[in-house]
Amino acid sequence: MQGWPVFIPTEKKIEYLHALLQVGFHTLDFGSFVSAKAIPQLADTAEVLKGLKSMPVDTATKLLAIIANVRGAEEAAVFDEISYLGFPFSVSETFQLRNTNSTIAQSLQRVAEIQRICEQSRKQLVIYISMGFGNPYGDPWSPEIVFDWVNRIADLGVPIISLADTVGLADAGQVADITSYVTGKLPNHQIGVHLHSSPHNRLAKIEAAWQAGCRRFDSALKGIGGCPMANNDLVGNIDTEWLISYLEQYENLNGLNKTALAKSLNLANEIFTL
User: Fold this and answer.
1) Distance between CA atoms of residues 238 and 217, nearest Å
2) What is the DSSP letter of 20?
3) Domain tally, the chain
4) Main-chain dihedrals φ then ψ at residue 90, nearest 5 degrees
5) What angle do CA 128, 134, 130 make, to 5 degrees?
6) For residue 131, what are the domain limits?
7) CB 170 within 8 A of CB 213
């Protein structure tokens, strides 16, 4: 939702997220505690959460909120309904400054503080390695740079690390190489991928990550999304239906409620229309 140009009414967000909670996904990235000026679309996250609390559902799906600094982590940590805090940590200096108004070095200090908050509030921190497969700004990038920062973050006790192809630059070979290295070096961590992709190569990227040992995939209905802070053409997220279709080759996904998924898709068609 964050990059959608038309404000989605709070009530419609609640209806949509309530439907998604009934599908049976492991985690639902439902909102963020960031600057309302930076991301006005999600300024109503606390209200959305209040609305979801008033409509309880029998679900094991956990809620994740994005934060960009310590203050946001403190705000999110007071809500018992939130299980995960997600922080975008970029290996591109330019993007880290644009996205969180902090340098990479400052952001590593933030990660340490946010991890402490998560431990105290019984939440888990998810670190997204933004620009993990390259960047459009000309900033230094190499697999070794990615591995160095991933290892530093892991040393802080962060349990979940998601490799993000923030602007869709990666090819399947890069996804395979970097993901397999990280899953191999950090066998006790959850390693995920947050891939942005155009239709022509999304399946190849999904397959590369799966074959590299990744079992945590981010997706969005209809492939809607993209990072508005990248100052680049938004490259959509991986389409949830495509992801499900691929994973059904290898995993029993009978636990997914296809009726609830169809309802969610209908709502997405209503909401994401310009």
Assistant:
1) 9
2) H
3) 1
4) -95, 140
5) 15
6) 10-269
7) no
Q: What is the DSSP letter of 242?
A: H
Tokens for 138, please give them.
Answer: 């000309």
Is there a domain that residue 105 lies in? yes
- In whole angstroms, give the CA distance from residue 228 to residue 2: 7
Given strand 82-90, what is the order of strands in its sheet? 27-33, 62-67, 82-90, 124-130, 160-165, 190-195, 216-217
226: pLDDT confidence band, cut at 50, 70 and 90? Answer: low
* CA-to-CA dists, residue 13 to 140, 234, 262, angstroms: 39, 21, 17
pLDDT tens string 228-242: 555 545 567 899 999
Residue matched to tokens 């947050």 = 194
What single string gives the DSSP state of each residue in 24-59? T-SEEEEEEES-TTT-GGGTTHHHHHHHHHTS----
Task: Let me know: does 66 contact 86? Beta carbons within 8 Å.
Answer: yes
Give whole-number Cα distances, 12 to 2, 17, 265, in Å: 15, 9, 13
All residues at 6 or more sequence positions from 212 whose CB lies less than 8 Å from its CB, including other chains:
175, 176, 179, 180, 183
CATH of the domain at 51: 3.20.20.70
Q: Are 182 and 147 in contact (CB under 8 A)?
A: yes
Residue 48 lies inside a defined structural domain of this protein: yes
Distance in angstroms (rounded) separating the CA atoms of residues 201 and 179 = 17
User: Is position 202 within any domain?
Assistant: yes
Q: In angstroms, rounded to a whole number, what is the distance separating the alpha carbons of residues 191 and 208? A: 14
φ/ψ of residue 161, rounded to 5: -125, 125
Question: 56-85: per-residue pLDDT in tens?
Answer: 898 999 999 999 999 999 999 999 999 999
Q: How far is the C-alpha of 213 from the C-alpha of 163, rounded, in Å? A: 13
Q: Taking Cα atoms as reference points, which of 216, 215, 190, 219 lies closest to residue 202? A: 219
